[in-house]
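Researcher: Batch entry, complex prediction.
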Amino acid sequence: MPEVTTDDAADDGDGIQIDMISAERMEGMRTMEKIRLILDGVHDDNIVILEDGLDPDEESKLIERTMSEINPDGFTGIEIETYPGNGADDGGFLGRLMGNDDPSKLTVIGPANRIETLHKDETLISTLVTRR
Amino acid sequence: MGLLTDLRSSISRATSSLFAGSEPKRIGIYGPPNAGKTTLANRIARDWTGDAVGPESHVPHETRRARRKENVEIKRNGKSVTIDVVDTPGVTTKVDYKEFLEHDIEEEDAVRRSREATEGVAEAMHWLREDVDGVIYVLDATEDPFTQVNTMLVGIIESQDLPVLIFANKIDLEEASVQRVSNAFPQHETVPLSALEGDNMDEVYDTIAEHFG
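Model: Structure tokens for the complex:
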């Protein structure tokens, strides 16, 4: 499977690279492989969009790994947004018990210093992405 | 709705039975930075043991290590429950040392604090996966609860099948909206309180005893 590489134009600061990663590409990857794929992209200042998101255990380890890579001289962490969220009415323990366990959740992850969520509700995520 | 109610009761009984042993339950106090977690931990510890857990501050990430107050015995309605209160650092996905500079902290100290904060968040996540028996999730009721960190954290807690209570803190402030908090997480019981002022602590202790006892 080919590696995701940073385009020269994005590398020069002329644009913003967006890596849209399919569920198929993530399928079969171990947790740390997924986290590495995401964080390598974010370290390259890319916006990473996952078709299928991460499960809660993977999200927990992503936070833990992100914390260990924060550096006062550069990387300040990640901004992450997921659609649909599980807060309003269909998620949670009860939802899973009732068989409502659809794991697909579009997830947007980017460097904390370049991506800012402007608005989020049940049907819309509005995000501002800034150049370096 | 009846089926859901029955199911919720069954789950409540099942999780209660997990706690049938005599060992104190480790109850992790989680939430985003500046939600009032340490103020709550101190309030609980002072009310039942006379001691505090740690220093409180308006500066984010004042708690940078998980701190435990052991054997806090809460007596309610003739019953008692003994818990270890674990006050954890506020969970976030980003830490920028420059945020500390806004609180009149010198750069060197800010860098040190940010490094400790990142270690603390990682430690809090580790505790959540392996070392707590139940969770009190504290939210600042004056803030929007529909954040990704809150959604992720509650999802992570649920995936661990840990019993959880949502505490809507800072109800002494005019902008507080308990309804907004309970709307965000309707699958869990929401308890309003002001840990700082001690408002509604009777209900807080009743609920802790009921859920974790």
